[in-house]
Amino acid sequence: MIMARGLRKSFVRRARRGEASEFEAVRGIDVDVRRGEAFGFLGPNGAGKSSTMRMICCVSPVSAGELRIFGLDPATHGPQIRARIGVCPQEDTLDTELNVWENLFVYGRYFGLPRDVVKGRIEELLDFVQLSDKARAKVEDLSGGMKRRLTIARSLINRPEILILDEPTTGLDPQARHVIWDRLFRLKQQGVTLVLTTHYMDEAEQLADRLVVMDKGVIVAEGSPRELIEQYSTREVAEIRFGPGENEPTAPKVEDLADRVEVLPDRLLLYADDGERTLQDVLARGLRPETTLVRRATLEDVFLRLTGRTLVD
Q: How far, in Å, CA of 210 to CA of 312, rounded?
């Protein structure tokens, strides 16, 4: 469905004095998205995710490399590609002067769909996203979760083969997130290919069949969530907390008890296949942490190991 080879995206930056410099946001990535799968792009701010998505959406030209969607070149077949994809942007761009039903109707007409077809499609979509009782409600009266569901419904008005979702549940409460997860899972069951970016690692684990982790414009890892955890982490993580200023000095005393020890300001992370056994070994050495926790390794552990814990502006 989507194929990229050596894909690059560059921008020209102009300084105040008029001097120009080139910035490469995407630096030669290879991507394959298969029909009917959910494919995720993960990465910190500035990793190149948004630039990649804009090229896939055919709204930003490719600087170098090859990109094909449905086997078509976005440079020459942009309108044909856009007619077959749906886009759910990170920010809701709903028309607040129109009600829920009218937002969907106007958007459907943008695609040139006949009025009767659009009306029938609206009823289906409102039922699908559980907004049938809000058809005549004003957009400004909807909750954040309802607005997000309406945005997803709008992106499905043209029956897209690929649905592109940029941070689909950012800012929503847990209940609203799970409702949207359920709707997206149902879409995948219907054969829609999903391409998403997210900062929620649990969301990536729930939704993505495969994903790539991007950092500084390149792909640093690729695979299913389980494959990435097995490759870059251990089965479990033991978290131990000592008093203020004691975590870093204690790290050398336990570094041989785990595959890897990570020192954080407030705790130590001991990566091991058997977290309980590791914790017992820590206590056997006479060390007495204030609190302990054993948990399974997650995609977040992988993400932070690959991209670091330093904030990127």
A: 25
Fold of 234-296: Alpha-Beta Plaits (3.30.70)
- The per-residue pLDDT for range 255-270, each reduced to its tens digit, is 999 999 999 989 999 9
- Residue 256: DSSP 8-state: G
Nearest residue to 195 (alpha-carbon basis) of 20, 55, 6: 55
Mind giving me the DSSP string for 93-153? ---TTSBHHHHHHHHHHHTT--HHHHHHHHHHHHHHTT-GGGTTSBGGGS-HHHHHHHHHH
CATH topology of domain 2-229: Rossmann fold (3.40.50)
Distance from C-alpha of 282 to C-alpha of 276, rounded to nearest angstrom: 10
CA nearest 69: which of 85, 90, 52? 85
**pTM given for the model:** 0.88
Ordered by start, the domain boundaries in the chain are 2-229, 234-296
Helix (H) or strand (E) holding 237: strand 236-241
- For the CA atoms of 275, 280, 285, 287, what is the dihedral angle to 10 degrees? 80
How does pLDDT run across 230-262, given as a tens digit for each residue?
999 999 999 999 988 899 999 999 999 999 999
